[in-house]
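Intended use. Records like the one below are meant for learning the mapping from a protein sequence to its folded structure. Do not use them to infer anything beyond what is encoded.
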Amino acid sequence: MRRFLFAALAVLAFAIAAPAARAQNGTLRIGLREDADALDPTLGSSLVGRIVYAAMCDKLFDLDTKLNIVPQLATGWRYEDPTHLVITLRPDVTFHDGEKFDAEAVKYTLSRNLTLKGSMRAGEISAIAAIEVVDPLTVRLVLKTPASPLLAQLADRAGIMISPKAAETLGPVNFGSHPVCAGPYAFESRTAQDRIVLRRFPAHWNAAAFHFDQVVYLPIVNSTARLANLRAGALDLVEYVLPTDIGQVESDPKLKLAIDDSLGYVGITLNTGNGAAANTALGQNALVRQAFELSIDRAALIQVVYNGVFTPSVQANPASSPYYAPGIEPPARDVAKARELLKQAGVALPVPVVLSASNSPDIQQVAEVIQSMAAEAGFEVKIRTLEFASSLQAAYQGDFQAYLIGWSGRSDADGNMWQMLHSGGTFNYGKYANPEVDRLLDEARVHADPAVRRDLYRQVWEHERQDLPLVYLWIARNIVGMRKNLVGFEQVPDGLIRLQGLRLEN
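Structure written out for the chain above:
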């Protein structure tokens, strides 16, 4: 606790001295809840990385505030038939290194996403069989099967375009440290755990919509320090305000909030098949996992840590989604039944569980509440605290038993499910494998009819609720805090901070 206090005071001291310098150099300062992982859109997997990409890296498509898909580097699209998608491209676009953006660059980037070792995008766009350059401003995607989520995937990291020359020159090891995209701001520098600095790119195709010369992203894990910086004027915007801090922001005449429903969730991924750490009672026995879930009171947990602002859920999609399955609701906490299931499983009590969690104070509190609740049902939970990017690496390597982690959410349900529950999913940290779930998820990608897809996803949840490779806890909300005189902000449910139109008024 003392270390956090000293850190908060140090950041606050910096904050009090910062406003004058900021006013002189036209800098927008954004507070992040954690540090980003590598800034390579093919390899990246963090929400805060996506927030930085929103300023640095344009995509083929984007989302508007109603989650409609709109052109960005593309100008339009049409299906010649269900397996041939033609995309037309914006002319006179250049990458930050001066290289021309064209159909060859699209082919290079999508091919890299599909084939680069360790790609986090391969599963998202796996329906693509071939990428054809029709002319310099036209690309045809040949698909293995119809792929209803594909456009939505191309409106996220899979659709970010990078400079082929820079990617080839730097190689996959170094590109994430010196990324070159085609967004309104170009990468300038990064100091790990301290800041990411972007500079205005005057040659951007829509440069007039962006009003800052520089954008600085400051990862501040401690929410108290993050809010103190905002209140002191050292930050112009924080991408996440804790629900417990809403009152402080609302009562400050210099600040304002933007609150909206989110597409994301928080849950506990359980290691059922990723290496030696899966060889536990929790990892190998569904009855033990069901007992663990029944030990948790979601509503009480959310009330204690988040003032009841979030919504308990056992699905990856919010109730607003057309693919939400009504009737599949969180079970009530039942300690007696949990103990009965552990008895049926034949495991010795207490059942040991190592719960990995990031070092954010609220996430640590969530872990501690779960630890206390689970103890009553016969579990001995030990909390393993990691810096967020380190926790991701541990998850990929199978170095975890249970992992408390959120997902920022996607507009299409496939983006919230396939990668986590399909045996081929790159975010399936625990290597869960159920052939019937794989079949249902793959089939849902083929159909365009929302009713058909919703029924297939309902069947997925019926299997998931039995196997419990992932214990979903709640659907989050986007809570953005900013200075009162920062105008032009438009909130999109995906939680990204888009900078077009954003400016400071005197």
